Q: What sequence folds into this?
RNA sequence: GGUCCCUUCGUCUAUCGGUUAGGACACAUGGUUUUCAUCCAUGAAAGAGGGGUUCGAUUCCCCUAGGGACCGCCA
């Protein structure tokens, strides 16, 4: 039994978006589940559009979400000679031929086909022509001799059997006029040379599969298994594009979504295992299979991402959470000094309770690090005469306290409520605003106790 | 226009011919937390339409409608 090998093969012509990440994830998970190997191949044969920065973005994205690959990334352009050799071999075998049509000639045909509302397919003009008839001054392209009769059935592991008439597949170009290989050639050769057993990729590659299978057959190579996964759509049903905000991993990372949460979300988008929603890493690998992949495209739902993130914030190990948070702050907010780190770490058990994102935790923790409390004008209205009076009384009471805990504070606050004919809101809200500058946040007792007596009276004294 | 694919609550999905069609998110209401973005409970919410096959169809087949992908000397 051959060892399972999968790959993710993006082109570095734009930032990797979340759909690509999911494809990578499925490939990775599948190989891990089978005890196989997973590779990253950068398909950079389009020299004009390929950019180093995109390559790096792809690598960093996979790293961030925890998808690791064998060896170094495989750079397709390094292997260009292998692709060209295969093209020449096909030429020699008579399974490919030189086409002397100029680009203009082809363009003209396409235009005409469009006008007539007919599908364009290359007319195989040079398929059986003598090379002696070749016009001077035109560099030929090399085209693959596609089958013109019969049908081909693709046994897709996700979509089932897909049958297509061979004559709808044109004699596609495998070598451009400048001698460089095209995608279908390069991808097939590389997949073969790298020993791929399973090609898991987006639905948009389905038609290519019929071309690639023909290359495998022509070269007498073993054809790998294919699985085409449905694409991801935006919430309004459109194809996910790079212009959509929230399409790259960075868009999620910067709002404080954690990699493990996003990985969990992506896993469940278009894949399911019974009613299970939460999959830690080991479970993901253990349960992943191709049978669980759905056939229809799925829509991205940000509220779902928040919800899973929230679940992870509340349930993962607190030290891990703290590391994620530290990392997040350093990358997107501010580097937190040792003292502040300590304060946050000690308060994480309650800070995490009302947070959907790392950004929420960061915001909720700000009162711990900044002793200068900024109060919005709108909120100042809440600090009316009575409120200030109650705060003053509160200060007087806590000054008598030697023990500053919830147990000692609760009676004080309860008494203030009773004596001043108010409710918890009447004292809780002004206190919260004076101590944190915000109307939202952790519970009052959590705020008081985490700040400590000194700091509380210091902050409150600035008000009265 | 051609080829191919898809269609269960708003969203992600379960169901592998017999279920009061289940779960999760979101939403609504109520309750805790005497604030809140937590937590708990409850509720509303779906088989695109039409034909078959069958004792019985969400499930199998066909048609229609809707949606999508591809149709590059891009990948």
A:
């Amino acid at each position: 039994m051959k060892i399972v090998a999968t790959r993710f093969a993006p082109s570095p012509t734009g930032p990797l978006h979340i759909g690509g990440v999911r494809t990578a994830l499925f490939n990775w998970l599948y190989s891990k589940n089978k005890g196989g190997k997973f590779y990253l191949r950068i398909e950079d044969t389009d020299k004009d559009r390929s950019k180093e920065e995109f390559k790096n973005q792809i690598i960093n994205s996979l790293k961030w979400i925890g998808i690791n690959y064998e060896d170094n990334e495989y750079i397709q352009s390094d292997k260009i000679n292998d692709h060209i050799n295969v093209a020449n071999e096909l030429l020699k075998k008579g399974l490919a031929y030189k086409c002397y049509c100029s680009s203009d000639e082809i363009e003209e045909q396409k235009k005409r086909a469009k006008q007539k509302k007919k599908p364009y397919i290359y007319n195989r003009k040079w398929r059986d022509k003598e090379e002696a008839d070749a016009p001077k001054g035109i560099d030929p392209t090399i085209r693959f001799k596609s089958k013109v009769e019969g049908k081909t059935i693709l046994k897709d592991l996700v979509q089932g059997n897909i049958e297509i008439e061979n004559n709808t597949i044109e004699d596609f170009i495998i070598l451009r006029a400048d001698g460089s290989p095209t995608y279908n050639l390069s991808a097939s050769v590389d997949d073969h040379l790298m020993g791929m057993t399973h090609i898991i990729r987006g639905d948009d590659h389905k038609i290519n599969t019929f071309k690639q299978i023909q290359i495998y057959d022509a070269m007498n190579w073993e054809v790998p298994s294919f699985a085409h996964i449905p694409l991801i759509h935006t919430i309004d049903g459109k194809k996910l594009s790079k212009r959509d905000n929230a399409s790259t991993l960075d868009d999620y990372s910067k709002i404080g979504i954690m990699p493990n949460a996003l990985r969990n979300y992506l896993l469940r988008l278009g894949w399911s295992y019974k009613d299970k929603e939460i999959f830690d890493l080991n479970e993901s690998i253990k349960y992943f299979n191709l049978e669980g992949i759905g056939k229809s495209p799925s829509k991205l739902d940000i509220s779902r991402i928040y919800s899973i993130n929230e679940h992870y914030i509340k349930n993962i190990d607190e030290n891990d959470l703290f590391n994620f948070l530290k990392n997040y702050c350093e990358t997107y907010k501010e580097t937190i000094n040792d003292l502040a780190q300590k304060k946050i770490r000690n308060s994480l058990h309650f800070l995490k309770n009302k947070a959907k994102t790392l950004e929420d935790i960061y915001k909720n923790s700000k009162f711990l690090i900044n002793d200068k409390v900024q109060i919005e004008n709108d909120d100042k209205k809440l600090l009316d005469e009575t409120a200030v009076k109650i705060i003053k009384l509160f200060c007087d009471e806590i000054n008598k306290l030697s023990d500053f805990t919830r147990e000692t504070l609760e009676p004080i606050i309860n008494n203030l409520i009773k004596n001043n004919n108010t409710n918890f809101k009447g004292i809780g809200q002004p206190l919260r605003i004076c101590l944190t500058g915000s109307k939202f946040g952790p519970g009052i007792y959590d705020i008081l106790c985490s700040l400590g007596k000194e700091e509380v009276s210091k902050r409150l004294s600035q008000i009265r």
